[in-house]
Records
---
Amino acid sequence: MSASLAPECNEVKERYDTCFLKWYSEKYLRGVGADNNECADLFKSYQKCLTVAIKERGIDKLVEESREDNRENDAAYLGRKWHPSCWCLQDLVS
């Protein structure tokens, strides 16, 4: 398995990857279950670790600046409007 973006998150990423790959091969591919709730807590732990690491490194600000710089292009080419309250594009509501 690959290493995490943040070395301090490698352990929790490895646990999540192991859980996910087991679920994927033993359940999803066999049609046993489409929902992967058994790995959700591990995913949340990994996501939390990454969020802290991204903020500590200032990556969140770089992403935000890049999105702001490209807001007009996104709106023109994607036909969508940037919504400042989230990190997502919201469809225009007529």
---
Amino acid sequence: MLAISTPTATLARETVNLMIQAIDKGPTGAPGQTFLPFDLFTPENI
């Protein structure tokens, strides 16, 4: 069994930062991607 988790605090912080950048810089010509770290949980480390 394996569980994949995205830390919600990191997700929220990155989302707010991207919204602030969009307001400050205006629309961009091409959409970008943001890669967030994730946690892997196995029965051995829970």
